[in-house]
Amino acid sequence: MEFNPGFDIIPTVNPMGFKYGADVFGPQVENRYLRDIRGSLSDPQCDGPEIVYSIAMDVGKCKHREMLERMHLLYGVVTYAAGRLGKEPIRSQGHIHWVSKYSGWSTPEVYEIWTGEAIIYMQEYAEDNPGRCFAVYAKAGDVVIVPPYWAHATISANPDKPLTFGAWCDREYGFEYDGVRRHKGIAWFPVFNDEGKIEWRANPCYQPSELICKSPAEYPELGIVKGESIYRTFEKSPDTFLYVPNPGLKEEVWKNYEP
């Protein structure tokens, strides 16, 4: 892989999924099909790969399994297919994390790119006024953190190769799609132009907004060590990501947050 995630896991392409090392636990993958996300695309009738992405929630080193359960942390991994969805890149439909009964918060997510190129898109609200909107461009080894309550989608920026990423999540994860689906998608649609570069088109179902395109922040206040995998950071200092299931621990960070 382009980046070492810190434990023995290898993405597979045909079929899409993951191969786990002897000291690693993980489930069978769940697949997301094109038919599942058509309603959130700018062209719901577009062609594209039947399996858009494959997800394995709750992976890690076997020796950490009980600790992760006790800390209410979960590590998930996702692989996106190469290709396009019509004129759009391969992407998720967009969602908000539901409010966890464990913390009483919608929870954040800590993304780490392993292979390919990603854009982590996020907007403050899934309401008529989407608030601030960001498109964070990330490559292998980069970390992007989505704050609590924000709607977000993950986009593969390079159609010629699969995108793989890992993420720290709340163990009581769940997704709310209603706001995004009510607006027929996120507030800005990524679309390939004739030169194969991604352009952004405003979704007319929202009020006008500005899109800020940027590189990832460094996030030292959220425990990110540049060049070190987020799993290895956890292994060295297990309490680092306790703010994922308990976002209130970093309440001040989430105010006026910029990714």
Automatic annotation (TrEMBL):
Domain Glucose-6-phosphate isomerase prokaryote residue range list: 50-199
Catalytic reaction annotation: alpha-D-glucose 6-phosphate = beta-D-fructose 6-phosphate
Pfam families: GPI
Example of a GO cellular component annotation carried by this entry: cytoplasm
Alphabetized UniProt keyword annotations: Gluconeogenesis, Glycolysis
GO MF terms, alphabetically ordered: glucose-6-phosphate isomerase activity
A GO BP entry: glycolytic process
Top-rank taxon: Bacteria
Pathway: Carbohydrate degradation; glycolysis; D-glyceraldehyde 3-phosphate and glycerone phosphate from D-glucose: step 2/4
EC number: 5.3.1.9
Family to which this protein belongs: Belongs to the archaeal-type GPI family.
UniProt protein name: glucose-6-phosphate isomerase
Protein source organism: Barnesiella intestinihominis YIT 11860
